[in-house]
Design goal:
Blueprint lengths: L6 E2 L5 H11 L3 E6 L2 E7 H9 L19 E2 L4 H11 L3 E5 L5 E6 H4 L15 E4 L20 E2 L2 E2 H10 L5 E6 L3 H9 L7 E6 L5 H6 L10 E5 L2 E3 L3 H10 L4 E11 L4 E4 L5 E5 L3 E13 L15 H10 L4 E7 L3 E3 L3 H10 L1
Parallel strand pairs: 1-2, 4-5, 7-10, 7-12, 10-11, 14-18
Antiparallel strand pairs: 2-3, 5-6, 8-9, 12-17, 13-19, 14-17, 15-16
């Protein structure tokens, strides 16, 4: 890794920092000012700033923390590496007494496991919505159900499951309909699984929320729900912590989708008077990623054996004064594998 790729200045905006993380596939950046070490900024810092409604145009210096971990040039290298492994840190800056950057130790240079896992064991059940026909991936899905479309030596749905298995979630329930027999046959044929798979099957289309009603007597604790064609690179422990801290009944993982307007935009006041000019602005929307965390309380708001979208459930919860949270991730942390363009991208990326 080129050192300069991870370096930003204190004036870098939160939006620019988030984009840089996406570009270099990192969750941590180094902040320097004239080669002097200033701070570190993580994707978690930016997520917390968004939740606090701090504008993305703000400089990263507005969200610096005091409790960052850095190494001194007088520290023993073995102790630095032990700290990196314990804290699961992507890289560790080494600085001298005058805050000069002396060295950077990167995880991948010292540890055999190139993938940094959180070490967290959440152990929560996971529901995967696997009943759709996958019309956007036709004609492939005329033969193979969308969850079983291959990515290298695995299937789409196994790639999704791995994210949960990494944090100790091993109880999976698939909501199936289209080509359900093929999905069951595939998972029944995997020997010595380190997870369990059960199924619910609709007699008629019930929608994402409507099908959850079939689990009313099974799920008695906090649980995840995921579409079967999305990959979300999110710290699941941070997501659960946010959900619990705010006493949410449901938390939606959102994606910060950026749109670049190729023209200057104009805002006017009364009588058509010019108020402001913005040259080729970026507009950021939060869109629904297809990943959620829910409480069993939601079953009290579901219709019995009737169709309901999960968005309708969310609105019903809001109308009843229940807490509905939104946890943001960057655009580069989300892949919608349910269409050809994105599916081919992830095939080529791997």
């Amino acid at each position: 890794m080129n050192r300069n790729e991870i370096v930003i200045s204190p004036e870098t905006t939160l939006f620019e920092a988030l984009n840089k993380m996406d570009q270099i596939a990192r969750k941590l950046l180094l902040v320097l000012d004239n080669e002097k070490f200033i701070s570190l900024i993580s994707v978690g810092d930016i997520q917390r700033s968004i939740l606090k409604k701090i504008p993305l145009e703000s400089p990263v210096s507005t969200v610096f923390r005091d409790d960052i971990l850095v190494a001194k040039d007088t520290d023993d290298r073995k102790s630095i590496l032990r700290m990196m492994k314990y804290e699961r840190i992507e890289f560790m800056p080494v600085i001298d007494s005058k805050s000069n950057l002396v060295d950077i130790l990167f995880w991948e240079d010292y540890f055999q496991d190139k993938k940094i896992t959180s070490g967290t064991k959440l152990g929560l059940p996971v529901v995967i919505m696997a009943g759709g026909e996958g019309t956007r991936l036709r004609p492939l899905t005329n033969i193979i159900p969308k969850p079983l479309i291959p990515i290298d030596d695995k299937t789409i749905v196994e790639d999704i499951m791995d994210r949960f298995i990494d944090v100790g979630c091993k109880d999976f329930t698939f909501s199936v309909n289209y080509k359900a027999d093929k999905i069951k046959e595939y998972f029944d044929g995997i020997p010595d699984k380190k997870y369990t798979v059960s199924y619910i099957q609709e007699d008629k289309p019930l929608g994402t929320a409507g099908s959850l009603f079939l689990l009313k007597d099974k799920l008695k604790e906090t649980f995840f729900v995921s579409n079967c064609d999305i990959l979300v690179d999110v710290n699941l422990k941070d997501l659960v912590d946010y959900h619990k801290k705010n006493n949410n009944v449901i938390t939606v993982v959102s994606v910060l989708k950026n749109y670049k307007i190729p023209y200057g935009t104009i805002e006017t006041s009364e009588n058509g008077m010019l108020q402001s000019l913005n040259e080729k602005p970026n507009i950021v929307y939060q869109i629904n990623s297809g990943l959620y965390i829910l409480e069993p309380e939601i079953f009290n708001y579901l219709p019995e054996n009737n169709f309901m979208h999960i968005t309708d459930l969310i609105l019903r919860l809001k109308e009843n004064g229940k807490n509905v949270g939104v946890f943001p991730v960057s655009e580069g942390s989300w892949i919608d594998m349910g269409n050809w363009d994105e599916y081919l991208k992830i095939i080529n990326r791997k």
